Amino acid sequence: MSRILVLYGTSEGQTAKVARAIGASLLVDGIDTDIVQAGTSDPRPADYDGIIVAASVHGGGYQRAVGKWVRNHAAEFGARPAAFVSVCLSILSTQPKERQDATAIPRRFFESVGWHPAVVKIVAGALPYTKYNVVIRWIMKRIVRQAGGDTDTSCDYEYTDWQDLRSFAGEFGRRVAAAA
Q1: Which domains, ranges and CATH numbers included, belong to the chain?
Q2: CB neighbour list of residue 117: distance below 8 Å, 6 or more residues apart
């Protein structure tokens, strides 16, 4: 039986949901999966047949604990299949520059940590307005208004395409099984 690590970083919780959804899809396919929040433990890549790292974009970067774990362990990934999932609202923008930025952020991250995964998946996250403090809510509303998105701050918006994410997990699981 294959074993996959899903290591994630999250700020408001959407990437944790993404990681759990990936893990659940892999389990349905009979793949043993460990879902670990970066910074809570230090899993060893050698214990897994495949690795998925997921992190959300905030201020043009990802959670520090994710970067630290990848930087410390990238050399140990070896030839095992590895993927990176970037959770980013900008991927939904109708503005080409915003979408380009959404694809540039992971590339900068990979350069900074010395890792270049074979598979990169960018998924839309969420706008949890009701969880933001007043300053972040104002900033996010302003950014989203410029992008033409949802600006009613009295409710939350979830944009993740769960079916697409399950398809990604299934494809990755098949890749790991074929490599094992």
Answers
A1: 3-125+160-179 (3.40.50.360), 126-158 (no CATH)
A2: 53, 82, 83, 84, 110
